[in-house]
Amino acid sequence: MAYRVLVWGLGAMGSGIARNIHSKLELKLVGGVEKKPEAVGKDIGEFLGIGNIGAKIYDDPEKAILETRPDLVVIATNSFVREVMEKIELAAINHVDVLTIAEEMAYPFYSHPEESTIIDNIARRYSISILGTGINPGFVLDLLIIAMTGACLNVERIEAKRINDLSPFGKTVMETQGVGTTPEEFEEGLKNGTIVGHIGFQQSIAMIADALGWELTKIEEIREPIISKTERKTAVAHVKPGMVAGCKHIGRGYINDKVVIELIHPQQILPQLEGVETGDYIDIYGDPEIHLSIKPEIPGGKGTIAVATNMIPYVIEAEPGFLTMADLPVPRTLLKDLGR
Amino acid sequence: MAYRVLVWGLGAMGSGIARNIHSKLELKLVGGVEKKPEAVGKDIGEFLGIGNIGAKIYDDPEKAILETRPDLVVIATNSFVREVMEKIELAAINHVDVLTIAEEMAYPFYSHPEESTIIDNIARRYSISILGTGINPGFVLDLLIIAMTGACLNVERIEAKRINDLSPFGKTVMETQGVGTTPEEFEEGLKNGTIVGHIGFQQSIAMIADALGWELTKIEEIREPIISKTERKTAVAHVKPGMVAGCKHIGRGYINDKVVIELIHPQQILPQLEGVETGDYIDIYGDPEIHLSIKPEIPGGKGTIAVATNMIPYVIEAEPGFLTMADLPVPRTLLKDLGR
C-alpha cells in the first residue's frame, strides 16, 4: 500500500517532486494542481514527460483533493507563509497532511509568530501534520548544523557557508539575485524588493537557536553585491567586470552583542572563474570543534526535490501538528519502484 | 523539571557521560552504579572530581533504581548485546527507560535477531523506550550516512571512512586493536579473539540497509594489520618499523556480488607520521553524488559522551519500544546549566 500524494504547483520544483514521487515504491502520485492552461486536464505523467500514468492535473485544488483522496499534498507554489496559508487550510479541512517547500514555512515561529500559531491550531483541530522543508532552509544550513552540535559537549558559536553556482538557473533567479546588474542597480533592487537574495535565514537561524535553547536577542541580514572581476556568461546572464555576479547574503544571530550563529550564502554565476570552490561548510566552535565540508555543494534543485519527497512518509506517519525538520527522523532515500 | 538520570558503569565513558549530564540544564544526575570498591558508597560528584552533588554510587543496581527513581538509566558497562540484556530487563521491570552505549545495541536486529525481539518485547511489555547509541556506531558511519542519502533522488552505492588516531587511548584499546604486535602475533590475535578491531560494522551496515530498504545478501568483515613503515611511540605503545600500528577494519554489505555499502575504519596510533590525515569521510554515489568530510574526525570519546547525553530527552519522550537513531530526531547539544 503506497501513500497517495497530490502535488500542488507544477513549476520546476513541483514537477521534479512529482516525477520523483512517481519513481518511488512507497509513494503513489495521484494527481496535480496547476493553473497553466497547457497543463489543466492533462494526464500528469504526460505533462511530466514520463508517459500516461492515469492521474490528472486539475485547476481546482478542492476538486483535486476530493477526487484523488490523497494522504498528503505537496504545496510547491510559493516561498512565503502568507501565500500558502489558505492552501494549507484547504488541505486541512479535508484532513489531508501537508508538506510544503515554501522556504518561510521551514520555521516561521520567529519570523511569523501569529501565522505559525494559526497553522499549528489548524493542524491540531483537523488532526493533520504539516511540514515545511527543502535543501535550504530545511537541511544544509539548519538540520545538518543541529545534528553536528549533537556530537558536542558544548557549543559556543556556529559558522556555516553555502557557496553555490547559479549558472543552471533561469531568468527569475538571476533577477532576484541581481545577477547582471550594475552596483547601483543592485542597491536600487534591494530597496524596491526586486533583489531578495536567499529566503530562509530568519528560519534557519531561529531553528538552530531554538534547538539549542539559545535565546537570541537579534537576527540581522545583510545583502552585498558580488562585484565580478572577470567576464561571466550563462545562457541567460552576462556579467562584465565591475558588474554584479550575484548576491552575498549573510544572516547573523546575536546574543546581546555577540554573534553566535553566522550563515553565509553567496549566490552567483560561475564562481570558479575567480577561484571560488563551491561547497557546503559547517564549523562548530565548541568542545569538540567540528569542521564539516561537502564539496561540491549539495545541488539546490535536486536536493530540494529529494528531501521533500523523502520526508513524505514521516509526515504522514507523524502525530498531528505543525512539525519541523528538527522534530522528525532524518530523511533517507526512498526505494525506487523498479516497475516504473 | 529536569529528567532524572542514573549512570550504570563509571569507566571512562560512563564517567564522562555522568559529568556531562551533571552540566546540563535539562538533566539531573541522581546517582551511579559501579562495583569498584573505591567508588561504592561515595558521592558521585566527588568520584567524578566535580565536588559533592548529593547523589550516591551504589554497587546494587536494583537498590540504586529504587532509591534514585530515575526516568532513564544510561548503561555504559559493555559492548555486547548479551552482556547488557539482563541489565536492561532490570531497568524495564522498574519502568525506567534505557540508553546504552554498548556498540552492538545500536542496531542488533541483523546480528542478534532473537535477542532483539526479546528486547523489543521487554520494551513494549513494560512501556519503556530503549536506545543504543554512540559516535560510532550510532552517528558517523550510519545516521549521518542515512541523512546524506535523504538529499539524493537515488543512491547506488555508499563508501565511508573513519580515520582516527588511537594515541590518547590506554592499554586495553591498544591490545584489542593489535597495536605493537608483530604481523604474526596480529594474525594469532585475530584467531583467538584478543584482537577485535571495531565493534559496530554489522550494526551500522544493517541500519543503513534497512533505512534504504536494501535487502543485503551478505555482510562481510575484514581485519588487516596496518604495518608501520616508521617508528611510532605513545605513552603505552611502541611500534617499530615492520610491526603493527593498528587494525584496518573493513565492513562490506553486498547485494548479490555487488558491494553496495563499504565502511572502512583504520584505527592506529600516530597515522600522521605516514602522512595519513585523520577524518570522517562519506561518499554517496547516486543522483546527486555527495562527498562529505569532517577533518579532523569527530573524536570518539567526546563524541560518544555527547551523543549519548544529548539523546536522553528524546528517549524519555519517545513512544515505548526498542528504538534506533534512525527513528528519532537528530541530537542537538543540550543547554548548559550555568549554575553548575
TrEMBL record, chains A, B:
<keyword id="KW-0560">Oxidoreductase</keyword>
<dbReference type="GO" id="GO:0009089">
    <property type="term" value="P:lysine biosynthetic process via diaminopimelate"/>
</dbReference>
<dbReference type="InterPro" id="IPR000846">
    <property type="entry name" value="DapB_N"/>
</dbReference>
<dbReference type="InterPro" id="IPR036291">
    <property type="entry name" value="NAD(P)-bd_dom_sf"/>
</dbReference>
<protein>
    <submittedName>
        <fullName>Dihydrodipicolinate reductase</fullName>
    </submittedName>
</protein>
<dbReference type="Pfam" id="PF01113">
    <property type="entry name" value="DapB_N"/>
</dbReference>
<keyword id="KW-0521">NADP</keyword>
<dbReference type="GO" id="GO:0008839">
    <property type="term" value="F:4-hydroxy-tetrahydrodipicolinate reductase"/>
</dbReference>
<feature type="domain" description="2,4-diaminopentanoate dehydrogenase C-terminal">
    <location>
        <begin position="139"/>
        <end position="338"/>
    </location>
</feature>
<dbReference type="InterPro" id="IPR045760">
    <property type="entry name" value="DAP_DH_C"/>
</dbReference>
<dbReference type="Pfam" id="PF19328">
    <property type="entry name" value="DAP_DH_C"/>
</dbReference>
<feature type="domain" description="Dihydrodipicolinate reductase N-terminal">
    <location>
        <begin position="4"/>
        <end position="77"/>
    </location>
</feature>
